[in-house]
Every structure is written in structure tokens, then in C-alpha cells.
Amino acid sequence: MKVIEKALSEGRTTLSEYESKQLLAEYGIPVAREFLVHREEDLFSTTARIGFPLVLKGCSSEITHKTEKNLVRTDVRTDAEALQVFRELRSSISAMDSVLVQEMVQGKRELMAGLTRDAQFGPCVMFGLGGIFTEILKDVAFRLAPITQRDALEMMSDIRGAKILEAVRGLADVDKDATAQILMNLGRIGVENDRIQEIDVNPLIIRNGKPIAVDALVVLHPA
């Protein structure tokens, strides 16, 4: 994969959020619509292409915990606000040379998915509750990659919060087939790219029943 080769040639062991989602998209995983903006003069054409409301994020392979560093701004609703946020983000950290301008994906349910490469067993696919519940509940299921659709569906039923995938309080069922495809594709990424050590897709926001990757991080093995 070109994005992996580029990072390794630069001596990097992480992909930026933008690069991480480029990799996911190449494997058919739905990601939020977004563009990387380097210059102020390109900002307004980008906001026009996506439409408001927007999310703006500082984007660099050297920055992995953007929220804690106040590098994520949500619900941006005007060009004037977007320009102000763009300037603030660009000036906040010297390592950051670009800003990710992203559609604001809105949904009341958040899941997470990922991949980790175990030293003994190889690539393992992960699925669980996402967002703020990830660290609190640690409600996750694992399977060795590659996985089948049956494996993926079993993972969804294995977590304690499995009912979140069902119709609840006026929300439609989560599309389990689409979610299963994401998990299968993550397994395929791990099998086909042995330099990938870890993938973290969190959150997967459920919009109209469909999961969309809003944030992602890919960690590479240096050797």
C-alpha cells in the first residue's frame, strides 16, 4: 500500500488520521467525507464542497490524542467560524501543518472496531462499544483474522451491550451486514499488510442505521 510505504520511507510508525482513513477506504470501509487543507485560501472551497455543520481537526502523524490536546472542534457552522478555528489549530502545535475538514456525522450510537497483531496468534479483529464508553466499559470481542461473516455476527452478539445494535427509542436497527463487512475488511487489512501492528477505528458512528468511521489510527511495526 502506497500510504504505508510512504510512512515507512519517512521513518514513521503511525499514519495520520487522514492517511489512516485513506487506507480504510481502499478496503471498502465507509469513512466520513473529508479533505485535508494546508492553506487558508483553500478553506472556503472545501467548506462549500462538504457543507455545514463541519468538524475541524488538527492533523499530523505525530498527534494521536487530538481531543485531549483541544485539536478537535465540532459543530462549525459558518465560513467565518471555520477560518477562526483553522487559524487557531494551525498555530496551536508546530508539528501540525494541515487541518482536516470533515463532515459532521451525527448519530446517537457509537461503536468501535479495530485490529491488533498478537506476537503469537497474528492479526486479531476487535469490536465493541465506542466513544466515551470504550475506556469505561471495556466491552469488546476478539476473533483471529481472517474472519467470516458468521464470525463477525458472533462478535456483535458477544459484547454485553449487544442490544445497542437493535431498534431502540425510535432508532432503527444497526445494519449488521454492513458492520460485519467492516470487521471482515479489517481482518483482510491485517492479513494482507504484515507491517500493520494496530488499527483503531473509534468511533464508528451509526447514521441512519449505517456505521461510518469518523476517526481512525493505524500503527505500523517498525521492522
Describe this structure in words.
The longest helix has 17 residues, at 176-192. The protein folds into two domains: 2-29 and 107-220, ATP-grasp fold, B domain (D-amino Acid Aminotransferase, Chain A, domain 1, 2-Layer Sandwich); 34-103, Dna Ligase, domain 1 (2-Layer Sandwich). The protein has seven helices and ten strands. Strands 5, 6, 7, 8, 9 and 10 form a six-stranded antiparallel beta sheet that branches. A four-stranded antiparallel beta sheet has the order 1-4-2-3, covered by helices on one side. The chain is α+β, with helices and mostly antiparallel strands and 223 residues long. The mean pLDDT is 93. Helix 6 packs across helix 7.
CATH 2nd-level architecture of the largest domain? 2-Layer Sandwich
User: How many runs of DSSP E, i.e. beta strands?
Assistant: 10
Order of helices and strands: HHEHEEHEEEHEHHEEE
Shape: globular
Helical stretch tally: 7
Amino- and carboxy-terminal Cα gap: 16 Å
**What oligomeric state do the depicted chains represent?**
single chain
- The fraction of residues assigned to DSSP E strands is 25-35%
TL;DR of this structure?
This protein has 2 domains: 2-29 and 107-220, 2-Layer Sandwich (D-amino Acid Aminotransferase, Chain A, domain 1), CATH 3.30.470; 34-103, ATP-grasp fold, A domain (Dna Ligase, domain 1, 2-Layer Sandwich), CATH 3.30.1490.
